[in-house]
Amino acid sequence: MPKLTHFDSRGNAHMVDVSQKQNTDRIAVAKGWISMLPETLDLITQGLAKKGDVLGVARLAGIMAAKKNR
Questions:
Q1: Helix%, strand%, coil% for the chain, nearest 5
Q2: Which of 11, 24, 37, 62 is the most interior residue, by most CB within 10 Å?
Q3: What's the number of CA atoms in the CB half-sphere (13 Å) around residue 23?
Q4: Is the dihedral angle over the CA atoms 44, 48, 50, 56 positive or is it negative?
């Protein structure tokens, strides 16, 4: 197994100089779960939540996070 360059001999993460590394294309997949009452889900999907457009805000937050890490 190759040595992991971002960890020292004690297993602590440390910075690595990647300035000479070529760009590579990668795909990241994220998974998660949310626990809520069925009534809460109904309010969100019907657009009736007191907080407003919950799904729209979540979608926008995801786009902003993806752009920030580019």
A1: 35, 5, 65
A2: 62
A3: 2
A4: positive
Amino acid in position 18: V
pLDDT in tens, 6-52: 788 887 888 888 788 888 898 888 888 999 999 999 999 998 998 88
- Residue 58 and residue 61: Cα distance in Å, rounded? 5
**What is the distance between the alpha carbons of residues 62 and 57, in angstroms, rounded to a whole number?**
9
Count of the separate structural domains present in the chain: 1
Instruction: Tell me which residue range forms the domain holding 64.
Output: 38-68
Is residue 24 assigned to a domain?
no
